[in-house]
Amino acid sequence: xxxxxxxxxxxxxxxxxxxxxxxxxxxxxxxxxxxxxxxxxxxxxxxxxxxxxxxxxxxxxxxxxxxxxxxxxxxxxxxxxxxxxxxxxxxxxxxxxxxxxxxxxxxxxxxxxxxxxxxxxxxxxxxxxxxxxxxxxxxxxxxxxxxxxxxxxxxxxxxxxxxxxxxxxxxxxxxxxxxxxxxxxxxxxxxxxxxxxxxxxxxxxxxxxxxxxxxxxxxxxxxxxxxxxxxxxxxxxxxxxxxxxxxxxxxxxxxxxxxxxxxxxxxxxxxxxxxxxxxxxxxxxxxxxxxxxxxxxxxxxxxxxxxxxxxxxxxxxxxxxxx
Length: 323
Hints:
- This protein has three helices and 15 strands.
- By secondary structure, the protein is mainly beta.
- It has two domains: 18-53, no CATH class; 79-322, Jelly Rolls (Sandwich).
- The strands form two sheets. Strands 2-3-6-14-8-9-12-11-10 form a nine-stranded mixed β-sheet, covered by helices on one side. A six-stranded antiparallel β-sheet has the order 1-4-5-15-7-13.
- The chain starts with 17 loop residues before the first helix and ends with a strand.
């Protein structure tokens, strides 16, 4: 919705030399000029332009909503807004951003013509059985700009701009694509795997990761399981519990209450993750019960900082396969 511009300024009472002005106006009229008394009183271009003009992609101010350019649905809930996740502020590393790096372009090589875009903190789009979600869940106390552009659930990107000047290391946004599973019993699956590919700017503080909800979605009784595939300056909550070898990769496993994070020893930006193997490993540790359920599987990037300039995070090739 466009806001109406300010009312035009009232014409001031003309001074004694108004006759001269009137004469000038008359002369201009005779020679085909367009000068008016209002132009003389306030100058050309002195009035703010009326609202309602075309706004370029990504130019909306923080908190405004850019309507999708194609029909879309954003009816799904916003689970991250009520996330019970513990804070990880005390364990963050200093911002390793290369300050000399140029801003990333607001584009994606594969998604050149998005069918959906939003700068709404809770904006999202349904694509097949998936939901692509801007999810600016923790921005109220920070200066954050983020716009999501989507061609499909497996081809989308965000352009974000934020910093860690406060030094608290808080995660501010988690743009993601996810699928809901309606609390189906984990024991009823024969396989759960997910494939992804991402490209991140290597500037700021962030990690690309799966975020999975078991036994409810962001409720007081649910368990949050993360699988960090690429880490750039982040540290997980909790304490190191174990190392795990899963699907040919090794992970350090951290735990803090109902939060569990598998952090890859070596970053990988594409591949397939056997998620059922992850769940079975957790059940084997006794951290969740054998009757646990699957609520939601997300993949995206937790963003703390982009070094104070725009950065692009792109996601392609995403899918979830179950049997």
